[in-house]
Write a structure and sequence with these properties.
- The chain is of the alpha+beta class and 312 residues long.
- 33% of the residues lie in helices and 16% in strands.
- It has 9 helices and 10 strands.
- The chain has a 6-stranded antiparallel β-sheet with strand order 1-2-3-4-6-5.
- Helix 1 packs antiparallel against helix 2 and helix 6 packs antiparallel against helix 8.
- Bound molecules: adenosine-5'-triphosphate.
- The site of adenosine-5'-triphosphate has 20 residues, from strand 2, strand 3, strand 4 and strand 6.
Amino acid sequence: EADPPLRLTPLQKLTVDMCKDEKTIKELIIGRRVGFYKVRGEIGYGTFSRVKLAFHALTRDKVALKILDRMRLDAQAQRLLSREISSMESLQHPNVVRLYEVVETPSRLYLVLEYAGGGDLHNRICNEGKLSDSISKITFAQVLSAIKYMHNINIIHRDLKAENVLFTISGCVKVADFGFSTRVSNCNNALDTFCGSPPYAAPELFRDDCYLGPPVDIWAMGVLLFFMVTGTMPFRAETMGKLRRCIMECSYTVPPWVPGPCQRLIKGILKAAPSERYAVDQMLGCDWLLPVEFPWALVPPEPASPPQSPGS
Ligand code: ATP
């Protein structure tokens, strides 16, 4: 039986005219594809999403496709998703995962994301143990660069944790997962949800009398730094109540073998009062980071450029 005639959108017609390659055209139009992307293997799962590896059918650029079933998104998940899209659309930094485009179908939403194929910081530390002092510096400097950029354009991440610090194959850091992010102007004390992961939560998130702004990310940077250089978390407890107490009392101990300048940085960040916590620029100028020719001497940036569509 002959294939039914293909019905092409204007963009597809343009592609057909440009590439004149029957096989590619068929894959583009009737293969397992999303827009111009051919879907390949599974990368992982989130609460509401699946993430798959995909290739641009013509340029072969790799992307990560975050796939969301509309049916499974409740009102809260929809709100978080629209925040994620809105934040990511305005972010363009070498250490932040780029959102290239959003493809919509009646049943699904596909976020086409820059692919970070080198795994995440959490798995890396769980599998290989703490990072060396020099790798910690390079990694921390890149996350800091991303946070400085976000805060400068009034975006707070609010879910900074090792699981959301991804690496490219060449080791460049890419901060991901902006589902809890917000604009500074939108953030207030009455949060609609507990943001982020409890072990990374700043003390003010457990109080209701405090401004919940950029220092929430700064605190999470302190937890992240502690985790990188020691391989353990600063605040651990068997119950949520005990964890909350530990965090609110700011009770943690930096192991004595952590280099002095790094200890001072951790202690400057992990302060219960947000107003006493280091600001980003104080972190950038700290003794521990200064030997790093900040930001790119050791790891060249990989500027994110969206996959090019034919003719663009
Ligand atoms: P939750 O929805 O509970 O917050 P999550 O943040 O892990 O979970 P996703 O952001 O959907 O959910 O990510 C699912 C998996 O895909 C994770 O393992 C994550 O590391 C991986 N992943 C997400 N984005 C990318 C990307 N751009 N490149 C490579 N891997 C990615």
